[in-house]
Structure prediction request, 464 residues.
Amino acid sequence: MFKTIEEPAEGAVEILVEGVAHRVPANISVAAAALLCGLGSVRETPVSGAGRLPYCMMGVCFDCLMKINGQPNQRACQVTVAADMTVERQLGAAEYEDL
Amino acid sequence: MDQDCIVIGGGLVGSAVAYGLSGQNQKVAILDGGDRSFRASRGNFGLVWVQGKGWDYPPYAQWCLKAANLWPEFSRQLGEETGTDLCYRRNGGMHFCVNEAELEERRKILEQNALHTDGEFQYEMLDHAALAEKVPQISNAVVGASYSHLDGHVDPLSLLHALHQGINRQDVTYVPSQNVSEISGKDGEFRVVSNGKTRSAGKVVLCAGLGNQRLGEMVGMNIPVVVDRGQLMITERIKPFLDWPTLHVRQTGEGTVQIGDSHEKVGLDDGTDPAILQKIVQRAVLMFPFLARVRLVRAWGALRIMTPDGNPIYQQSETCPGAYAVTCHSGVTLAAIHAGTVAEWISGKNDDPLLSRFGTDRLHV
Ligand code: FES
Prediction:
């Protein structure tokens, strides 16, 4: 559904989204990358389990929470993609190993 | 007469009283403050709490226990009427102690609570092993805890929201952004002027939190209030780990963790202070080390409405009968009793002898 308007000047990086390798423009946010990769939802809410996508793209709505490099509940719109980054959907509330 | 009753203040106290009064078919209007008002109701911790309250003032110990016991039915009714989930749970509550002296002091305090209530207040002291069985994540720095099955917690914002929906359904007139400049008259014929408009009512109830001191003077009451700032934080949503609310750490029904709190004498400033937030967080991390890796989402300050002795004030004016004041800092715990017993006292249907123990005379001797 989403596509880039012009070829990115800074080149591309490869990231792992839900276990699948994708080439995305460098210097875009993880939220933008998730949209480009065509994820139907980036998270499922902890309360009702509803699927969500990024909404404000500027850090205030918290609807873009994803697990990035193993860290849960990251606002994907506030993180820039980097080579070999792992990006997963945030399913429900965060889990910490010793919790 | 425009109204049977004008309630000044639409926070947890005012809306609970108005909800109770309109439930008795009284015609009620609420004059609420504006967005810039200090709103303890929008900044609190959400405990429906008994243990430790009133340990040095028996009537308050009895009052809190009574109030907490009214909560299950109050919550059920309000939730059903308004279709709101208040996230009210009563599994009991805990207070963690980090050394033996604290634990011993805690035991003495709760012994007083039990004494004041003829043993109706029940509690247990847990040593570290007993506590770790219930709360496996607790650190070794916590030597033990007090526990009472009578404590509970609720989502305080959902409570406020539900009360407002409740009064709306009961046709209470709600007027926001009001600044009351004049109250005159007595029983049966009060006039209240706010934002230049005059309204008449049979009775007036002051529920304006810190504003009660100024408003009280208009109807011959001396209501001393003391400002006490508390700072709180809330984390991201994490998997359930803590079934029991405590005085410093509480996991909400939706998974966030509330961390508190402080007591600061800083006047009318509801801001935050990083140095104090750091101390609050350090204590929480001492209790639950894994919290150090959990992200905070928000921090805020709110102003408690205290009285000089910390106990609530329920007072009818002697010079202007028909004018009442309700002042307290436990708007959550006492919401059920404010909607019940206190609303009935104001409408003249109930004269609970405990109420006479919360007059202002105890403060002006
Ligand atoms: S999309 Fe709103 S915070 Fe990221």
Observations:
- The radius of gyration of chain B is 21 Å.
- Chain B has three domains: 3-49+157-224+311-363, 93-149, 226-306.
- The longest helix of chain B spans residues 58-82.
- The longest strand of chain B covers residues 296-306.
